[in-house]
Specification:
With 229 residues, this protein is α/β, with parallel strands linked by helices. 45% of the residues lie in helices and 24% in strands. Helix 2 (36-45) runs parallel beside helix 3 (62-70) and helix 6 (159-170) packs across helix 8 (191-208). The longest helix is centred in the middle third of the chain and has 22 residues, at 108-129.
């Protein structure tokens, strides 16, 4: 099994070093950077399995860094570290797309448990999608063959329908950004393509309405969310 690659961006030199060395002792590969700008440069240079970002940092704070990353990458897990226990910070972090949130001081053991919980969830999602077949309520979605199967029958999806549904499934019960979806499926986020995507969302809603526990909700100003009850 490959080592988990973690990027730590923390401006407190003592805490940063302790985090990096502790996680290395636990069999992980860590890279430590001291501010948000350094962190972004490092993120762009390599592929990481998990990001641990301090919020209060010089040059670029953790929220801004995370938003920069989320503009092109909606999947790499992010854990925020903060000296505050402000509810507003927690909400802001979750809206950006954080997977977890830890308030200083915290125990290294707790951090390790949080990391294991996130990686276990990611592994499970990867396993579900390995053969390209996903379960969505009463439907089986075969992404590779672009087939949506329900008790009522089989529907052959268009390429764009299949790609858009795959993105929604990957972000199930979380918000799929309009910009990310447009760039992934249409290539750019022009006005014309945005209107086209709205049409495809309407098509997918009609295809999925056979199961009333499934909904595609429009998150105004943000994107869409596939809710599976």
């Amino acid at each position: 099994m490959e080592k988990l690659k973690i990027l730590i961006v923390e401006d407190d030199p003592n805490l940063g070093q302790i985090l990096a060395e502790y996680l290395q002792l636990k069999g992980m590969e860590t890279t430590l950077r001291r501010d948000g700008e350094e962190g972004l440069r490092q993120y762009k240079q390599s592929k990481y399995d998990l990001l641990i970002l301090d919020i209060m940092m010089p040059k670029k704070d953790g929220f801004t860094l995370a938003q920069d990353i989320r503009n092109t990458d909606e999947t790499t897990p992010i854990i925020f570290l903060t000296a505050k226990s402000m509810k507003e910070d927690t909400i802001r972090g979750l809206k950006i797309g954080a997977d977890d949130y830890m308030t200083k001081p915290f125990s290294m053991e707790e951090l390790l448990l949080r990391i294991h919980a996130i990686t276990k969830r990611i592994s499970r999602q990867d396993a579900e999608g390995e053969n390209g077949v996903h379960q969505i309520g009463a439907f089986h979605f075969d992404n590779q063959n672009q087939l949506l199967t329900s008790p009522a029958g089989v529907t052959k999806l268009t390429t764009k329908e299949s790609e858009l549904l795959k993105l929604l499934v990957q972000k199930k019960n979380a918000t799929l950004s309009r910009t990310i979806a447009l760039k992934a499926v249409w290539g750019d986020d022009s006005y014309f393509n945005a209107r086209s995507m709205d049409v495809y969302i309407t098509k997918l809603r009609k295809l999925l309405r056979e199961d009333p526990s499934i909904k595609i909700i429009t998150m105004h100003g943000e994107g869409f969310k596939l809710i599976v009850g």
